[in-house]
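ingest -> validate -> predict -> emit
validate: passed (alphabet ok, no gaps, 164 aa)
predict: started
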Amino acid sequence: MKRLLLLLLLVAGTTGGAYAQEVYTQIRQKAVVQRDDQFGSDVVRQIGHFKVNALDYMAMKMKEQMPDSTASFLDKQALAMNSYVSLYVQTLIEMKAQPANYQVKVMKLFIDASVSNPLFNDRDQELVMGYVADGNSLTRFSLDTDWQRALLAVDSELKKMAKQ
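emit:
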């Protein structure tokens, strides 16, 4: 009886981890499709490229620095990154009619939230800050970002700006 219970717990545990990783995998697969779509817009392809690189970086660093972390942690970070980028794009679209200095302020807010909330404290700044340094990139965010914290930070700041 104990063996059966142990086996059921083991199967349930591996199924839960696989499910959690499915969200990461789905976000990554969608980003790959966006990145590789030769008929898609340059903006969508650029965003897809960033997402794939951010997700790959995240998975690689988690294996190196957090080998005991759960698949659900990776899942939550991937979901937060996707939400962060979506909020950024939505905000850019909504503020098209705003003055240029306001638009720059909001874009800087997103960049700063990304840079100010590292997840791994990676010392390879050339790699981590590659998108931030690229003035032509739409997604000028650090790869080393705790996307959950960054999303909360940017959301809080956007609400403060809306009240002004």
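The two ends are 64 Å apart (CA to CA).
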